[in-house]
Amino acid sequence: MLTINQLPNLKAIGCDGHVYYGQPSKNIMKITLQLSLFLFFAIFSSYGQVIEKGYSKYKGTYLHQFKPFDNDTTVYDCEYFLIFNDKFSSFDNKAHFEFSEEVDKLYSKNSKESESVYSMLNSKNKLPAEAAFNNFTITKEYSTKNAIYVYNLGYISNCNFNENYGLLEWSVKSDSKNINGYNCILATTKYGKYELEAWFTPEIPVSDGPYLFGGLPGLIVSLRDTENIHVFTLTEFTEESTILLKDVATDRQGLHPNKPNQAMNKMKKLRQQLISGYDISKSNILYPSQKLPRLEDASDDNIKRLMLKFTLYDHLLFKYSKQNKVF
Amino acid sequence: MRNILLVFLFIYSFQSFSQSIKGTIKNEKGEPIIGASIIAYQLSTNTMLSYSISNENGYFDLSIKELQDSVKVTVRSLGFELSEKVIKLSDDGKEINFQLTPSDMILKELEVQSKPITEQGDTLNYNVESFAKEGDESISDVLQRMPGIEINDEGIISYQGRTINKFYVEGKDLMGSQYSITSKNLPQNAVASVEVLKDHQPIKMLADVVHSVDPAINIVLKEGVTVTGNAELGGGAPYIWFAKASPMVFNKKHQTVNVLSSSNSGQDELSTFSSINLFDFLEFGLIESKPTFLLGNTPQESSLFKKSEYNDHQTHSTSTNYLTGLGKGDLKINIDAYHDTRFQDLSSNTYYFIPNDTLAIHNLQKSTFTNKYLKTRLTYEHNSDENYFKNSFHFKVLDSKENSQFYQNEELIPQTSSKNFYNVGNKLTKVIKLGNSYYKMNVYAEYTNSPEQLNFKGGPLINLPSQNTLTSIQQETHQDHFKSYVGTHVIKQWKNLTFNTKLSLNYDWRQLTSTLPNTTEEDAILYKNDLNYMSFIPKISPSIDYRFKKLHFSLIPNLSMQLRSLQNHILSEKSEVNSIVFEPVSYISYDFLGVKLNGGYNFNNYFTELPQIYSGIIISNFNKANQQHIPILETKEHFFNGGFGYELIALSLNIYGNYEYKLTNKDWISSYVINEDGVAFMETQSFNENTGVHQKVKGNFDWFLLGLKTTLEGDFEVGQNEENVILNDVANRNTNKHLSWEVSIDFPIAKGLTFSSYYNEYISNNIYQDYNQVDWSQKIIGAELQFSKKRHLIKWINKWIDHTFLENQFLYVDFSYQYKFNKKTSVIVIGQNLLDHQYYNQTTMNVYQSNQTYFYLRPRQVMAKVRFGF
């Protein structure tokens, strides 16, 4: 467990943290994870530079249906927000978005330095549930067509990388159909080992779409791979001008972001640890060599849950991998 | 050198087929617009040829690969008006610039239509809003329309022809098999979706171990719905009233459903109370005993009309049900009670089949049937992944009285009968896991007591007890029944096979006594019964269940030792059965390209029991007497069935078909003798090789077209029954054939106006005695028009009825008007039978008689009802 003295440059936060870094009791174990997350945001938001990218204009909601496990046709659902304006966009896991909004509210409310972290966490506004899986954010810049992928549980496994969606070679077909009131046209491309099909609508002239995809002369309304392992569908699209777009990648400079291959190896290691029975949710990026405790609940369901949440388990439409072929 | 250059130029000229359009996009201020989308379309077909996105300088570059004369170029950008130009490609190299004007038009919102049916694993999710229509009140009104789901008249729900084994609301089973009380009263606007759980195993512990083929339904309520239900109050002419309150509460820990009603308007609130507890049958293989009354008359029902159209009654009923979490499980209390009085006036012509002739007797009947009923059930259930325990205690009391007056052959015959039914029982189920095996124990004990009494004065039977000096006859019977059952299932799973071995012990004790008091000693023996019946049946059923990918196979070979004995104390006779019986049950299903095929074979061996056996004559009605002086006799039954089911969820299409064939072999036969007074005397006799055949083919088709908001349904049934019966000492083979089919369509004509129509035909061929053939058919054409606008809702329902034995076809019309004050309050005016048809002629027949009855319908009535939602 961390002690106050071991946390780097923690002068901005109150010192009462000492209280729980002694013998952690069961209740405190529960809060510790939330605490680490909270601290993570708190520390690095005050130290990294948050580059503001202007207020949003529109917000779309995407539903992602995917099958992460081999020989298992169970489909998992995940929702994301695509928030954009003329120049930038952010594709964020919905649960993470709501969680970080609450954290921001709490932090701005309790910015007095003498406030204890414990009381902040215990305040009446309970934080909403963390994302169960797919906890990442992608920010895109329209002028350069550069997309930055950031994994939000960086304290478990730091993984950031860039991809330029302008390099995607789309092949526009003559098929068109009406999806939810918008006239859409079909386009296909090859992405790593996947063959993708996307329906985009010129009626929304934004060269963007779900995940790392964009570059078509219209918003991508639905995207899937030909084997239906990943399906993205636009379910809502409304005007939204109150959200401030931020660039989160620069925050993580202090954590030495990994290149995709490094990130993949790290994931592989985490999965092996999990299957061997170690509780990877207690992993700490600041102390990578620390020995992990054994898993309390080694049931199939729990292992699957942890895999989805912490090891980026095939839930990514990863250019470098494809289900059944990576690990 | 020059040749090489020429070659290069030559090659180069071939490449330059690629034409390009370049330019810049600027706003009204002359500033470049970044990220605008520029698309070039082919002029004739309007297909996309090329696209480009403007860069930081507003610059775009379209390259067109196919040779074109001119193309249409559209430029779009958020916050600006669309700009379009037709560009001639011959002007090569010239820059085309666009200047966009701002627009404050907001992009339209996505019209996401929630899919009416979605599938996740073994669960189908039906979105209620997609299927609900104006005028639907309870969730059962919407369920009927959902493809694959059917509700019969008693409210029993089935999916693809299989009845459901559980009805949950928010995951909890409050009502047990009386779920129709909830489905008929839960307002549809409180429900978000209906889940069909295919192959549902209600015991969580046995979820992947014991595979079920039965479906279940779970009602998912809308967010925030906890208190729901309605209260209704109404009155009308002639002298009708209606009052009903159905408050319901559903939350995480408690659920309660209450219905109180009182009415004489024809609306039937009682069908749910008499439903068979199918759930117990599926779990236990046993059903709670139902009354098997021997004496008296029961109301005649119509096959052509709904009960609400002919039932003359006064009914008060109440049902209170409460579920609460208790410790780790749930405690449930269900209390039902009703007081029902029915009036029936009939006028009939009965043609009895006497040897070589028919005897016609005219008969008038005026009856009042009064039923008082109370049932209480207390259940505790703990259903978790590690443990299962359930105990259910119940007691039932039924008091049924009949008061009739018959007028036959110029004689007035008053008759009264009084029947009571008392029943108390307890069921216990426990599942434990030891190592890799599961043990499921079921214990059931029940006691029933049924005293009956019949009294009548006069009539053709009055001289039957030869020295009867009185003018009235009094018949009494008394039945006692004690049933007990203990069973253990040992469930072991190995790879894809489940071995479920059931060991059970059944002990049954019955007693039947009957007397005809006030008769002489000699006659008394003829009319007296004092019988004891006992059966002790140990049974072993080692069953195998195999499930792999698309194949499911199960075989249950039931081997039992039947030790039965019947003792007749009056005649000092004994009948015993000591035999080993083998009754296999098999089932196979295979999923072939999305079509689910299934088939099965069962063999059953039944033995006659009390009250099917009695040596003394029992007079059951003023013109009916029965005697079944037989030893314990056997019935063997072979049953084959096969079917298929296909559902195309994307199209909301559901098709299923089924064929069944039953072969019965009895060593007994029913014999009827009719005398010149029209008295039917029924006897059961021994008979060798009495075979009966029953066949039925059934098909059903349901299609919900979301785009047109139309429902198309069709179903048909063809069946044939053959059996041997003795009539007036002549053995006959009676054949009944029937064909029924129905198509219905439901579609919107205009906004707020929907039309639904159905055509229903039933054709029946009956051959009695080889030379007595009666064929009849019935056609009903229904047309309903529904108009809704804002708060008004008008329904106009027409039924055109044609029946072979009806003199004239006629039209039956209902009309209703509803005005909604707000979401929860409405007033409705209902007119029933507006053309005031007083009666109709119904023909029924059986082995020994053909009967034409003039059946009274409820006269024209108008009622106004106010409804408040909770």
TrEMBL record, chain B:
One of the record's GO cellular component terms: cell outer membrane
Keywords annotated in UniProt: Cell outer membrane, Membrane
A matching Pfam family: CarboxypepD_reg
InterPro entries reported in the protein's UniProt record: Beta-barrel_TonB_sf, CarboxyPept-like_regulatory, Plug_dom_sf
Subcellular location as annotated: Cell outer membrane
Transmembrane segment boundaries: none
Signal peptide start-end: none
Name of this protein: TonB-dependent receptor
Organism: Flammeovirga pacifica
